Each structure stands twice: as structure tokens, then as C-alpha cells.
């Protein structure tokens, strides 16, 4: 239903804002905390953030060539950014150990 918000499974008859809004979540997940996660709510206007003219000064697209990924991963690891630091669950540690022992 356009223009209707949902709260705990029930429709709420309030209009969405005319533009996307940023939301800082309540930090209940370790992953959200370590990744400094934030979200956007778009309401009825589904325009991607990169297509909104007034946001362009604050957004930057970074294209990484596949050939550069190993170098970038190594540099991130030297800076302390690892699978287990980004994904603090057991699966993040397991992935980090698999990559470490693969070398």
C-alpha cells in the first residue's frame, strides 16, 4: 500500500517523508556496531541515493579492479581490518582462519 507505514505488523496511516532519511539504529547486533552501520528509509520515493542531486557532494563511488583486490585485502589486514573484525560472529573468524591457512 503506497504511503502506508507498517509498525509491528499493523498499517500506520502516516505519510512517508518526501525524501530519504538516515537512521542510526539501536545497536543490538555486534556486526552493526563494528561496521558503524546506518540505514536509510526511502518511503514512496525509491530514487537511489546516488541519483539525488543534493546528495552528490557527500557520496563517492569507488570502483576497484579485480586485479587490485589481493593488494587491498593485504593493506586492510595490516591496518587491522579483518574478516573477524568486520564480522564478529564465529563465521567471520572461520573465514579469516581459512584465508590465513590458504596462503
Distance between the termini: 52 Å
Instruction: Report the C-alpha radius of gyration, rounded.
Output: 19 Å
Mean pLDDT: 81
Low-pLDDT residue intervals, each spanning 5 or more residues = none
Shape: flat
Give, in order, the helices and strands: EEEHEHHH
Strand content: 5-15%
Percentage of helical residues? 25-40%
Count of helical segments?
Answer: 4
Number of strands: 4
Main sheet record: 2 strands, antiparallel
What is the SS-derived class? alpha+beta
- Widest β-sheet, arrangement of strands: 1-2
Q: How would you portray this structure in words?
A:
The protein is an alpha+beta fold and 103 residues long. Helix content is 31%, strand content 12%. It contains four helices and four strands; from the N terminus they run βββαβααα. The strands form two sheets. Strands 1-2 form a two-stranded antiparallel ribbon. Strands 3-4 form a two-stranded antiparallel ribbon. The model has no long low-confidence stretch (mean pLDDT 81).
Amino acid at each position: 500500500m503506497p504511503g502506508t507505514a507498517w509498525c509491528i505488523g499493523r498499517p500506520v496511516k502516516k505519510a512517508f517523508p518526501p525524501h530519504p532519511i538516515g537512521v542510526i539504529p539501536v545497536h543490538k547486533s555486534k556486526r552493526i556496531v563494528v561496521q558503524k552501520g546506518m540505514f536509510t528509509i526511502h518511503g514512496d520515493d525509491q530514487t537511489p541515493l546516488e541519483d539525488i542531486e543534493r546528495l552528490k557532494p557527500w557520496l563517492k563511488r569507488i570502483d576497484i579492479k579485480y586485479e587490485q583486490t589481493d593488494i587491498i585485502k593485504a593493506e586492510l589486514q595490516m591496518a587491522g581490518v579483518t574478516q573477524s573484525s568486520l564480522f564478529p560472529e564465529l563465521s567471520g573468524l572461520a573465514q579469516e582462519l581459512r584465508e590465513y591457512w590458504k596462503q
